[in-house]
Amino acid sequence: MGLLETFVLKAAVSMVKAGAKKNGSEASQFERLAKATKNTSFTKDEVAIRTLLENTTGGVRNKIQVTYPKYDFEVTLLEAKTLLSDNRTKNPYTAEVRFFIALPNAETLLTEHYDSIGETINGAVAGAVKKFAAILNDMFELIDGADDDLIENYFDGRAHVYRYETESMVSCVGAPDLQEIKGFYSEIEDELPAYLGAKKYYWLSMEALYSGDHVSAKCRINNEEIGRLSELVEDKARRYFTEGICGQVQEQKLIVQSDRTYVRVKPKYNDAYNNMYKYIRQCIPLMGQSSVLESYNELFRKVQAVTGDAHSAWEVMTFLPEIYVQWFFKIKGTGLVSMKIGDRELELTEFQISPMRVIKSEVESFLEKNKPCDEFNQNIFSMSARFESAMKALKSGVKEEELAFGTLSVEAPADYVIW
Questions:
Q1: Which site in 19, 191, 362, 391 is 20 to 30 Å from 321, CA atoms measured?
Q2: What's the rounded Cα separation, in Å, for the pair 328 and 368?
Q3: What mean pLDDT is predicted for residues 202-226?
Q4: Do residue 247 and residue 315 come from a single domain?
Q5: What is the DSSP string of 379-402?
Q6: At 202, which CATH number?
Q7: Which DSSP state fits 191?
Q8: Residue 419 domain-assigned (yes or no)
Q9: Residue 206 in 3-state DSSP?
């Protein structure tokens, strides 16, 4: 559950209990809510889609999906729900909407949610959708080239230029003192380029939650939390923490790689991702059931038969064993990768290498759902360049919880392209 969802849930519980004391029972609160829903002329989903179309331009509707052909955006409504009813206020209805944004040709998938209050259920839903529409419009303006600053990066040995809006989208709910924060981007600005790579779009979301006696913060890029950047966001959030303060501060920013430097590596990124998830699920048992006596080339050919090409097979053979060892033993790591491609020596972060993120997700899921035997694990461990050093450290007296991996060094095929 995300920070905002946790905050909303706590607020909902306390408001329902308070309302129950005044109005008779918790059940009566939701009975009134259900009755109000039946009296609306449109379903909440219908209100959400209509409001989105009315507040954006160029959208083409297909049931609960709206596509924006000019920008290659596909927006799907996941949910439009009313959280609670409290008749003690002028705006008794609170609604939350969740949208899924897919950019099929730009390797970016996002889930965004917004909430709002209103005098009616439909009004609350429309208010939440208008917030989302404002975000979309800001994205479209940036893509069109309006009001932007530049970031330069040389992560793969050549220049990449990224554009972003000078003004971030900052929202604050709760204690008035939190409005002084005015966002977190300046805290992460210097270290952000290390996480920008070959993609076209990067959706940056920073948020801090204050819950009275605690403050927590996260920084996500394309919905994936970046630990180091979260630390920087939390450092600033703590400077504004006082006992008893409650609220949430969120800053969002879209970063777009310039057409001058963007190169599409995959014809359809969504297809590439879907295929990778599928073949990683096949390759984990394939590698775990292989014999330690089997040669690297023999296993490589088997993996390539599953992945369909040599570069994908190299990614699996190189990264899967290292990630498997790290997750199995819960070893901390720097998240840094030194990659040699031909005569180029590149210093990267794992976030910049898409296959590593997919493999990490599938390995984590596999180990959570299965209890592989020792032989299975050993077969994969034997392929890891860092496994032996970890075992030596343990034998020398280093405790398992103190193990840490440094930079992963790999050599890629001379014609390999990072994506």
A1: 191
A2: 10
A3: 87
A4: no
A5: HHHTT-TTHHHHHHHHHTT--GGG
A6: 3.30.500
A7: T
A8: no
A9: strand
Q: Are residues 131 and 169 in the same domain?
A: no
- In a shared domain, residues 247 and 361: no
Name the amino acid, one letter, at 175: A
Kindly state whether residues 43 and 136 are assigned to the same domain. yes
Domain count, the chain: 3
Contact 172, 130 (CB under 8 A): no
- Is 388 exposed, middle or buried (CB count within 10 Å of its CB: 0-12, 13-18, 19+)? exposed
Which residues are paired to 341 by β-bridges?
Answer: 344, 412
As given in the structure block, the two tokens for residue 53 are 């179309």
Query: Considering the chain, what is the average pLDDT of its residues?
Result: 80
- Write the CB contacts of 386 (distance below 8 Å, at least 6 apart in sequence): 322, 325, 326, 405, 408
The span from the CA of 44 to the CA of 41, in Å, is 9
Phi, psi of 72 (to 5 degrees): 60, 40
Which residues is 247 bridged to in the sheet?
174, 210
Q: Are residues 32 and 113 in the same domain?
A: yes
In a domain, 417, yes or no: no
Give the residue from 67, 79, 82, 76 showing the smallest Cα distance to 36.
82
- The domain boundary residue, chosen from 264, 279, 304: 264
pLDDT tens-digit profile of 43-55? Answer: 899 999 999 999 9
Look at residue 266 in the predicted model and tell me its pLDDT.
65
The verdict on 248 and 319 lying in the same domain is no
Residue listed under structure tokens 């930079």: 407
Are the C-beta atoms of 115 and 82 separated by less than 8 Å? no
Q: Are residues 156 and 140 in the same domain?
A: no
| Dist CA 307 CA 304 (whole Å) | 5
DSSP state, residue 223:
T
pLDDT in tens, 56-72: 999 999 999 999 998 88
- Give pTM, 2 decimals: 0.68
Determine the structural domain holding residue 256 and report its residue range: 148-264
Residues 63, 177, single domain; the answer is no
